[in-house]
Amino acid sequence: MVTLPEIDPAHVASPLSERDLVERAANGDESAFTQLYLSHRPIVARYLRGRLPAPDDAQDVEQEVFLLAYRGLRRFEWRDVPLAAWLLTIARRRVAQFWRTRARRPQVPLYEQAHTGEGPEETFERAERRRTALAAVAALPEPQRRAMLLRLRGLSHREVAITLGRSEVNARVLQHRALARLRAEVRGAKEAESATE
After folding, report:
1. CA 18 – CA 105 distance, rounded (Å)
2. Which residue, 25, 47, 100, 161, has most beta carbons within 10 Å?
3. Looking at the domain that runs over 140-197, which CATH code has it been given?
4. What are phi and psi of 113, to 5 degrees?
5. What is the residue extent of each domain of the chain?
6. Tens digit of pLDDT for each residue in 172-183?
7. Does the pTM exceed 0.90?
């Protein structure tokens, strides 16, 4: 896990415009980058919390986003678009990378293996099913994926709706469509598997 330097809150307020802060940070002014970090962290953190499975994952990716931004500011070109748009683009790419990596490397904790009494073949098959499920969820359209992940975290339909800023009916529709797509994916995978046997 990459750790960003400690931030001195005394550097938060600034009469400089965002463009001036970006230019100063690109030229190595760490206090300017600190101000940019503090003003943009909430939106990046909110974005990541809604797209990643655990708070620790969101924090890790958040640090990666700001580290990449810090390194990339020298190449950043100001185009009268808020810096948040660029940061969210970095965040979106890191989230996609997170899910690609997670799908390639299914994680079955050792304590799960020890308590199931499964042999290596059963453990591998369960890990494969989990990898397939994660890849299918990652392939869902953005609103459906968010609704499913929030629901899988144990949020009620009402809480999902509030989190997504939608009506409860709309949140239920998103979840229903996501489940329908996932079922179709599973059916397609089973049919493909039986065709190859």
Report:
1. 40
2. 25
3. 1.10.10.10
4. -60, -40
5. 9-103, 140-197
6. 998 889 888 888
7. no
